[in-house]
Amino acid sequence: MDYDLQDGTDACTRASCRAKIAELQAKNAELEAKITELEDRIEDNWKYIESLHEKDHDLEAKNAELEAKITELEDRIEDNWKYIESLHEKNHDLEEKYVASRKMSKAAEENSRSQAKDKKAWNSAVLERDEVIKEYTRKCKKLQDLYEYEKAFREELERINEELLKKDELERSGSRTSPSKDHGASISHENHETAVPRSTTPTPSFKIQNHVDESNTKPSDHKPSAPGKRRAESVPGKPAAAPVTDDNKNARKKPKTKHPKTSRDAEWSKMKDQNGNAPESFKFTFSVPAPGSSDARPVSGSTEPAARVDQISWPDLNDSATARP
């Protein structure tokens, strides 16, 4: 900066002015430097502001993206809440079903215990019934054996009676040529009597009675007596002896027919045959030794041997059904 000093100013004033001018120039230069620096700083600030604007734009974009994500998350959270509510409902239904299943399980357990108890009672009843059936089967087997024995024994006596009838016919045919023999004894079978010629030592006739009550013929109440066993209610006393006549008053007495196994009187109960018909009462009035005994004599002239008593299937006398009292 140039100043005009030609107006008569003294040198001092001019020097001071120059110094002030120089000082002002220095301050001006310093201010210019500061202004330049400030301009640079302002330019940097503008650049920074522009960068901030760019960052703000990026932040806005990120904010929008975050808002979209937040909205999506809110929707998902709402869906999750709805799902949780549905799970609560399902849990409630499952709890109700669980309670119902527990009740059904308890009822099933009670029913199972009741069925087990009923099954145990049924099994015990079945076992008792089986025991009863076994007992009745055993008794029926004993009765069947007794029936078979009595049937065989009766057949044996009928066979002996038939042989005696045959012998009677032979003796009758022989008595026609020898009239000195007397007659008196008779054999009765099925209510038909046939005269038998009396020998030189006649035998007194007697009857083996068989009293059978009508109620005993029922299948449920009938109990046949043991072989050779006389029932107290059927035979109150000893059989009455035959009346003494002129034909048998001098007859030699013989013992009653004894059973070869039991040594009892020959007696059997009225039994039904296979057709369900009860046979007629059998009345045996001729004293004959038991078949197979030591004093048995041949009753037929046939060479064929007679059936022995030991060939008959006798029941076990040790059995409680047929044992002696």
Automatic annotation (TrEMBL):
Q: Where is this region: Disordered?
A: 161-325
Polar residues biased stretches = 197-208
At the top level, the lineage of the source is: Eukaryota
Q: Which residues form a coiled coil?
A: 14-111
Compositional bias ranges of the Basic residues kind: 251-261
Where is the sequence biased in composition, kind Basic and acidic residues? 161-195, 210-224, 262-273
Kindly state which keywords UniProt assigns to this record, in alphabetical order: Coiled coil
The protein in question is named: Uncharacterized protein
